[in-house]
Amino acid sequence: MKKTLLLSVFILGIFACNKKENTIIPIKDINYDKAESLFNKNNKDSAFYYFNKVVANSKDSLTVATSYNYMSVIQSNAGDYFGAQESLMLSLKFLDGEKEKDIGCLSSNYNELGLNSINLKRYELTIAYCDKALFYYNKAIKYSKGTGFNLIILNNKALAYQKVRKYAQALKIYNEIIPKKSKNQKEYARILSNIAKTKWLQNPAYNAAPDFFKALGIREKENDLWGLNASYAHLTEYYKQTRPDSALVYAGKMYEVAKKINSPDDKIEALQKLIELGPPEQTKQYFETYRKLDDSLQTARNAAKNQFALIRYEAEKTKADNLILQKDNTEKNYQIIKQRILLAFTVLLILAGSVISSIWYKKRKQRLELEAKNTIRENQLKTSKKVHDVVANGLYRVMAEIENQDSLEREHILDKLEVMYEKSRDISYEEPQLSDQNFQEKISELLKSFATETTKVVVYMGNTKELWKKVSTEAKYELEHVLQELMVNMSKHSKANNVAVRFEHKDNYLNVYYADNGIGISEKTQFNNGLTNTGNRMNNINGEIIFDTKAEKGLKIKISFPVS
User: Fold this and answer.
1) Among 57, 82, 72, CA closest to 15
2) Which residues are within 8 A (CB) of 171 and not within 5 positions of it... i.e. 6 or more apart?
3) Three-state SS at 437
4) Burial 54-90 (b: 16+ CB within 10 A, else e)
5) 102, 119, 276, 537: which sits with the fewest CB atoms below 10 Å from its CB?
6) CA-to-CA distance for 193 and 170, rounded, in angstroms?
């Protein structure tokens, strides 16, 4: 007896129409309305066709999901359980559990998946398929918002337990859901009959007859043909061993009701019972009727499966053809747009190229003019720097020597002036001309030349020949002029009477420490060109010069630069 078919149709009725429980209200669609109308008129094949048109063309996800749900019910009723399962899985893809409007359809889908899991193993339900069905029923309960719909799902869940002989679990659910007050007589009779059957299956000695007949009486009063069909099936099974004559009577009544409700599965089930219980002279007739009905049912179901597959194939083919046409049109439009864009881009490129070329030419002209001015200015600064370092500081050094010597050596003074003369003539050369011979002595001589009767200059520690071996010619040149500038500045401004200079080579750096006991300099002191040039010179050789402006007395300077 196909109770699952009855439940599936009943569930879908709630699913489609109930405005209070598990409401699903998809967006209106002409094909959807027509399909739903045909479904309600029991014209299932045509309904499937129009629902398939909806899923192929609708843009509303809930409408598509609902249509797939209807299609699954139609397929399940036709015995196409795998096709029904596929439709339900497609329906789930269009739903979101976070959206309130999708919850009703989700619950119905999972309930249908549970029914399909049982139908796939209808005659011998295994534990694995039962577990799968229970999983789907639990999901259906999770998303169900209606009390009435919950009762249906729980009844299906209990039936799954019953079919795998887990009677205690089935009875627990039945006892929880049976109405305390029989407001819904049909529902009360259904659960009462299921409880009686489960208790009898659990304990064959249990007297289930009173509950079976109580449920039967309610169903006769309510004229519930589907319920009567179930009651006659239960009574046939119950009396088959103990009272076969009574069982035969109820099997015959089941067959008559099955013909009224036009349920092929229930007619076949009733005929099987009649063949088993009937007298030999009638068994042959029952069997012949059974064979013809079974053949026609299988033929109809196979035809329905093929028809469903063909409807889907034609819809998919039409959709594919439309997509190909759309693709061709899109490609043609794309080519036209591409050509227009390319033409517009070419024109813009030419215009942009002209503007950019004009701007670039003007910028280049300005840049060349600026570079020329900067070059002239740089050369002027270099020349000024050389005049200051070579001529001015050189003259001051000669003047200091003349001032601090008691007796003048005329030839010695003339030699120095001649050297300065030669240097002033070569002032425009870029590269420094510096001899590496006796640089140690040259530095000592430079520093001590600024010693006077009132100013003592001491060179101690580090100024050795070894110190200067790895120092480049450029570094020596720059350092010589830095020291000369410092000593000139000391002589002019510091009023110092003690000057000390120390050299050291440490961690690939040459360090020069200068200290005097003069008036020092403050943090706010503005350096003149000479002292500013000392920083520039040290930058040229990746070094630095640090003036300690916080010394309590005098001036301390550190000069440091890398050596190879």
Assistant:
1) 72
2) 158, 195, 198, 199, 202
3) coil
4) bbbebebbbbbbbbbbbbbbbbbbbbbbebbbbbbeb
5) 276
6) 13
Which pLDDT belongs to residue 433?
53
Question: Cα torsion at 293, 299, 305, 309 (round to 10°)?
Answer: -160
Separation of alpha carbons 81 and 115, rounded Å: 9
Whether residue 549 is predicted with pLDDT greater than 70 in this model: the reply is: yes
Higher-scoring residue by pLDDT: 537, 403: 537
| Span 301-358, pLDDT tens digits | 676 666 677 676 665 666 565 556 566 666 777 788 888 888 888 888 888 888 888 8
| Rounded-to-integer distance, Cα 50 and Cα 248, Å | 44
Q: Which long-range contacts (CB under 8 A, 24 or more apart) does 393-402 make?
A: 393/481, 393/484, 393/485, 393/488, 393/530, 394/419, 394/420, 394/423, 395/420, 396/488, 396/491, 397/446, 397/449, 397/450, 397/484, 397/488, 400/449, 400/450, 400/452, 400/491, 401/449
Token pair listed for 186:
């049909």
Determine the Cα–Cα distance for residues 410 and 47; give it in Å rounded to an integer.
Answer: 129
Identity at 234, one-letter amino acid code: H
Half-sphere exposure of 545 (CA within 13 A, CB side): 21
Q: Which residues pair with 503 in a beta bridge?
A: 512
The 10s digit of each residue's pLDDT in 143-183 is: 987 767 888 899 899 988 998 899 999 999 999 888 766 56
Scanning 121-243, the segments in alpha helix (DSSP H) are: 127-143, 147-163, 167-177, 185-202, 209-222, 225-239
Using DSSP's 3-state secondary structure scheme, residue 541 falls into coil
Please count the other Cβ atoms lying within 10 Å of the Cβ belonging to residue 258: 26
* 475-529 pLDDT per residue, tens: 999 999 999 999 998 898 889 999 999 999 999 999 999 999 999 887 777 777 6
Cα–chain center distance at 548: 58
| Cα–Cα distance, 419 to 412 (Å, whole number) | 11
Own/partner pairs, 499-503, CB within 8 angstroms, 24+ separation: 499/447, 499/450, 499/455, 499/456, 499/457, 499/458, 500/458, 500/460, 501/447, 501/457, 501/458, 501/459, 501/460, 501/463, 502/460, 502/461, 502/462, 503/461, 503/462, 503/463, 503/467
SS (H, E, C) 99-118: CHHHHHHHHHHHHHHHHHHH
Looking at residue 131, its pLDDT comes to 86
Beta bridge partners of 558: 513, 546
CA distance 234 to 329: 64
The pTM for the full model equals 0.51
| Residue where the block lists tokens 């000392």 | 534
Higher pLDDT, 41 or 430: 41
Note the pLDDT tens digit of each residue in 48-58.
999 999 998 88
150, burial (CB in 10 Å: exposed 0-12, middle 13-18, buried 19+): middle
Q: Which residue has the higher pLDDT, 389 or 24?
A: 389
Asked whether 561 and 541 are in contact (CB, 8 A), the reply is yes
Could you report the per-residue pLDDT of 251-270, keeping only the tens digit for each?
A: 999 999 999 988 888 888 99
Burial of 456 (0-12, 13-18, 19+ CB in 10 A): middle
The H-or-E segment that residue 547 falls in is strand 544-548
